[in-house]
Design brief:
By secondary structure, the protein is of the alpha+beta class. Helices cover 44% and strands 23% of the residues. The protein folds into two domains: 149 residues, Sandwich (Jelly Rolls); 105 residues, Homeodomain-like (Arc Repressor Mutant, subunit A).
Length: 268
């Protein structure tokens, strides 16, 4: 397996490559449940497997790819008889969301096919090569990401969201998730009604504001479970939940695992 990471943005761009790589998986190899803070696309070179996100399951094979969104819990598994080999690229930045929507990928459309799979794979391999060189290579890798995204059919125009209200709401959530804020408080800060807030989040993320806030809290809970030995009640308090019991209920609902089992798996 090859895996390259940029620990810091190497160029002053609004789009940065976070990681990239490729792997030939063993039969039944599973990754997750896991949460990431960036966009991540996998593209299957051979074999097959399944991808699970947002309560849905997709079966994929060679020539297909799938999108993982920031702050969501996902799992994917190689087939037991014909395990897949795939390449991936992770990216972030102010332009990441808009670029993803521009090529037609969204919470509603996670899986895609490329008409010229060979060309798409070659671009991903070139991104891996460019990742070895920090300065010019970083710029070339970003260009490679844009070329790869251009291989995905189904482009669509900008969704024309009133971004200032959505951005204010997300900013408020990010700054106050550790307190017991309500959706109404988020709407008040964004200076819109709850109905308008709901519509904005459905259009931007494919989920409700309440679901987005829960996902944000669980993302930080996952980090604390992995990086600290704090008890559940303490972690719950740090992510704005009433108790460790409430955290456990939400955690099992979203991941199918107890917080304790998740902590053990991530540390192994």
């Amino acid at each position: 397996m090859n895996d390259y990471f940029f620990s810091e943005p190497c160029l002053p761009l609004s789009l940065q490559i976070i990681n990239c790589g490729s792997e030939r998986c063993s039969p039944g190899h599973t990754f997750g449940p896991a949460i990431r803070e960036h966009y991540l696309i996998h593209f299957v070179a051979s074999g097959k497997g399944i991808f699970c996100a947002d309560g849905k399951i997709w079966e994929l094979r060679a020539g297909q790819g799938f999108l993982i969104l920031p702050e969501e819990i996902t799992t994917y598994r190689a087939d037991s008889s014909d395990p897949w080999e795939y390449s991936w690229v992770g990216y972030t930045g102010a332009a990441a969301g808009k670029v993803t929507l521009t090529v037609g990928l969204s919470p509603e459309k996670r899986v895609f096919s490329c008409q010229d799979a060979g060309a798409a794979l070659e671009i991903l391999r070139q991104i891996e090569d460019d990742a070895l060189h920090l300065e010019a290579g970083g710029l070339s890798a970003v260009g490679g990401l844009l070329r790869f995204l251009a291989c995905i059919p189904g482009r669509r125009p900008d969704t024309r969201l009133p971004r200032q209200h959505y951005d204010r709401a997300r900013w408020y959530m990010e700054g106050h998730y550790a307190t017991p804020i309500t959706v109404q408080q988020v709407a008040n800060f964004a200076q819109i009604s709850r109905a308008q807030l709901y519509r904005l989040f459905q259009e931007a993320e494919g989920r409700s504001p309440k679901q987005a806030l829960t996902a944000l809290r669980l993302r930080h809970a996952c980090r604390l479970l992995t990086e600290t030995d704090a008890p559940l009640d303490a972690i719950a308090a740090q992510v704005g939940l009433a108790s460790g019991q409430r955290l456990g209920v939400l955690f099992r609902k979203e991941t199918g695992l107890s917080p304790g089992v998740y902590r053990d798996r991530m540390r192994r």
